[in-house]
Design goal:
Layout (H helix, E strand, L loop, with lengths): L2 H7 L4 H11 L11 E7 L7 H20 L4 E7 L15 H5 L19 H15 L5 E4 H7 L3 H9 L1 H9 L4 H4 L5 E3 L12 E5 L4 E6 L2 E6 L5 E3 L1 H12 L3 E5 L6 H10 L6 E5 L2 E2 L16 H7 L2 H9 L6 E2 L5 H14 L5 H6 L1 H6 L12 H11 L5 H10 L9 H18 L10 H15 L7 H14 L6 H12 L7 H8 L1 H12 L2 H7 L1
Parallel strand pairs: 1-2, 1-9, 2-3, 9-10, 11-12
Antiparallel strand pairs: 4-8, 5-6, 6-7
Helix pairs in contact: 2-3, 7-10, 8-11, 10-11, 13-14, 17-19, 17-23, 20-24, 21-23
């Protein structure tokens, strides 16, 4: 093994830890199918949300880690359970009344309320693929409808009929008594209405591979093959693992109690249970679980309106076992931390690089950062400069970093546009300027005076030292009270940038003028105008 592979094999980064578990499955011999299969599952009952992206992003990170420590080929299936019946109408789509008429129909037969695709399931699948393609994921899209109807699941379905009692024993033990009376792992598709039927099964004919049930007083017999029936979602999970020989799948914490059920059904159907990874849930700004049907929380499109794809991938990498609050205020920090990691990467040892999120985001092909100005600083600059577009920021950026340009710093140029948009939509409406206290006023007057006398280059560190000294000399304790005063009085916010860097970017004379306007009460007046 190379030194790099040795470092990867010993890395404590969570994608490598998961990759080693997958590799251990094949420590004695390679997989008979010729590859290791990673899978993600998606229920297209509503518009894809950011948690769906997170599953694919994180699984891709594990897949890349696996490919670093093993020569076994890999594949990633993105599986859509689009034959599931539509149990309720999502709140965030049009034509609610029309959709209500198609409740319990498979999602791939429900008309598309947007009028763009042949079905609602087809629309949601297309959205998912568009989102995933935006990030350049390498995956193979699998439709449950296509697999059921084409016969690709037939062998597993026939085996399910043969081993029906064993599957039912597992399932009934997990159900309340009332539910046990009518439950079956098979859901027939009504030949009359096309709906997915939740009805008791009267007879299983394992020899002929059929099920018999009553619909509206009529006894009907259907083959379990060819898309005439589907499996309930819990048995379907395990059956899919068995049918495809899945080696790894991750899912949210809300599935964790069902893991033994999925595993056992996979084994009953002749499969080997995969390695799995349970991540914590994504929450909206109120701490509620993100839901496709509600459309709450932050969407992928919304994140990409204000920040890059890489910043979202960075956010997904962080602490997958910790619940994540997905709201707009997490974006600036994610952008700046991502670029901090990019800048650190070239000088790190192989062990440190494998622990750096950017290795996993870029699969080892890590670009250099051209963000000479942090995103948070761009937001503050947009605030004080009153910028309406990124052009309004570039005059300040060029003075701060003369060699920077939109052409040589494309990520910075994109971030400048994002910053103006983010400031306009989220920062400007919430700014609250306050008047300084007497102690703060004297300190601000001192700062303005020293800026007026400043005859050195606008060096961020030198300016930061001067600002810090003023706070100490005017008796601020703790020192954060002084910096918070600067933010609240001058920027209308509770938090802000390193103030020396802000002065260097905005300009010494411009910062002096800003302080004078604040002391005159003009900033508070303009904010309320």
């Amino acid at each position: 093994m190379t030194a790099q592979r040795d470092a990867a094999m010993n890395s404590k980064a969570w994608p490598f830890e998961e990759a080693r578990r997958v590799l251990k499955r094949y420590e004695k011999k390679d997989p008979e199918k010729g590859y290791v299969l990673f899978e993600t599952g998606y229920g297209p009952s509503g518009l894809p949300h950011i948690g769906t992206f997170g599953e694919v992003a994180r699984t891709t990170m594990i897949r890349r880690a696996f490919e670093m420590i093993s020569d076994i080929p890999t594949r990633l299936f993105c599986f859509s359970d689009d034959m599931d019946g539509m149990r309720k109408v999502p709140e965030n789509v049009p034509q609610q009344e029309m959709l209500r008429e198609h409740l319990q129909e498979p999602l791939t037969t429900v008309p598309d309320p947007f009028g763009e695709y042949d079905s609602f399931g087809g629309h949601n699948n297309a959205m998912l693929r568009r989102f995933l393609d935006t990030f350049g994921f390498q995956y193979e899209f699998i439709s449950a409808t296509e697999y059921y109807k084409s016969g690709k699941f037939d062998d597993t379905l026939l085996l399910a009929a043969e081993r029906y009692d064993a599957i039912m024993e597992v399932m009934l033990a997990s159900l309340r008594e009332e539910r046990q009376q009518t439950y079956s792992c098979f859901l027939p598709i009504s030949p009359k209405t096309g709906k997915v039927l939740y009805v008791p099964i009267k007879h299983i004919d394992a020899k002929n591979g059929t099920i018999t049930f009553d619909e509206d007083g009529q006894e009907i017999t259907l083959p379990v093959t060819g898309g005439n029936v589907k499996l309930q979602w819990k048995p379907d999970f395990g059956a899919r693992w068995a049918a495809l020989d899945v080696d790894f799948e991750m899912y949210g914490k809300d599935h964790s109690t069902n893991t033994p059920i999925y595993d056992r059904i996979c084994e009953i159907l002749g499969g080997r249970k995969p390695e799995h990874f349970t991540y914590e849930l994504f929450l909206d700004q109120h701490g509620q679980k993100i839901s496709k049907s509600k459309g709450n929380g932050l969407s992928i499109d919304e994140w990409l309106t204000y920040a890059s794809t890489e910043s979202l991938s960075y956010f997904m990498y962080q602490k997958p076992k910790t619940a994540k609050r997905m709201h707009f205020d997490v974006i600036p920090k994610a952008v700046d931390e991502y670029h901090q990691q990019l800048r650190a990467y070239p000088d790190q040892t192989p062990e440190q690089q494998f622990a750096n999120p950017v290795w996993h985001i870029h699969g080892g092909e890590v670009p250099a950062s051209d963000m000479v100005v942090p995103f948070q600083m761009l937001l503050n600059l947009a605030s004080v400069a009153g910028a309406k577009d990124k052009t309004g920021l570039w005059g300040f950026i060029r003075r701060y970093a003369p060699d920077a340009s939109p052409e040589t710093n494309p990520a910075l140029d994109q971030a400048a546009e994002f910053a103006v948009r983010y400031f306009t939509d989220f920062v400007a409406p919430t700014r609250t300027f306050r008047a300084p206290t007497e102690v703060e006023r004297r300190a601000l007057e001192d700062l303005a005076g020293r800026l007026a006398a400043w005859d050195q280059p606008a060096d961020a560190e030198a300016l930061q030292t001067m600002v810090f000294a003023i706070g100490r000399e005017h008796g601020f304790e703790p020192m954060k009270d002084w910096f918070q005063a600067l933010y609240q009085v001058l920027l209308g916010a509770d938090q802000g940038p390193r103030f020396g860097g802000f002065i260097a970017l905005y300009g010494v004379d411009e910062t002096k003028a800003l302080i004078e306007r604040a002391l005159a009460g003009e900033l508070a007046t303009e904010a309320t105008a």
